[in-house]
Design goal:
mainly alpha; 2 strands; flat; 2 domains; two-stranded antiparallel ribbon
């Protein structure tokens, strides 16, 4: 009874807003379904082109319709492997798709090329959800760097002077970002620590203190 009464007494303005929201949600759902259908009809070559375009936007692989589609196709690994020719961000989504699809072909990519691709993608990300958050968790792209071990360190050291902000999206993630204001250099330092140290090292909250840690690290490498 109370539910029915609540619906009856709902202000007209609130009801209208709810209807508008539902209409917008339905429209977005239809658009998402239509987009997935378009990408499902693409050839492998067309998907590879879309992967390259999407990678250059600095977003996450999992938010790319081309990425979601190509990892469904189990027979495309060799074509993906042969398409990776550069050592840049452009190849990032293709590399991560290959890692997901076929560990054998992924392992055939020279380490120097894979690390150049991954660190270039890290340096040029617009949002950093694909990498995780230092002190809290690592996502698949960061784990791919960590898995290469100490050979990754020189590639990460090149990013220690990059103080560009490294924002993330998501309600909880944004709260963490607002607290720490992590930067590209902080991701690089945290990944180096993850690779070099047996125990987890937490980065301090203040950027100035993190800068001191970076400076100390650099001095110790001389």
């Amino acid at each position: 009874m109370s539910s029915c009464k609540s619906e009856q007494t709902q202000p007209p303005e609130q009801k209208e807003l709810q209807q508008q929201f539902q209409t917008l949600q339905d429209s977005m759902n239809r658009l998402a379904i239509a987009t997935e259908e378009i990408f499902s009809q693409m050839t492998v070559e067309e998907l590879i082109t879309e992967l390259e375009k999407a990678a250059m936007l600095g977003r996450e692989p999992f938010n790319s319709a081309a990425f979601r589609e190509i990892v469904k196709r189990k027979d495309v690994a060799e074509t993906l492997f042969n398409s990776i020719k550069e050592s840049s961000q452009k190849e990032y989504f293709k590399l991560m798709a290959l890692k997901k699809l076929h560990t054998g072909f992924y392992a055939k990519i020279p380490v120097r090329i894979s690390l150049a691709i991954l660190t270039d993608a890290l340096a040029n990300s617009e949002s950093f959800n694909a990498w995780g958050i230092p002190n809290f968790y690592w996502e698949s792209s960061a784990r791919a760097i960590i898995e290469y071990g100490s050979v990754s360190v020189p590639y990460l050291e090149k990013l220690l002077d990059d103080k560009r902000p490294a924002p993330v999206w998501g309600s909880e993630e944004v709260l963490i970002y607002e607290q720490y204001k992590f930067r590209v250099c902080d991701y690089a330092l945290a990944l180096i620590n993850e690779i070099n140290q047996k125990e987890k090292i937490l980065l301090p909250e203040l950027a100035g203190t993190r800068d001191s840690l970076i400076a100390s690290y650099k001095r110790n490498q001389k």
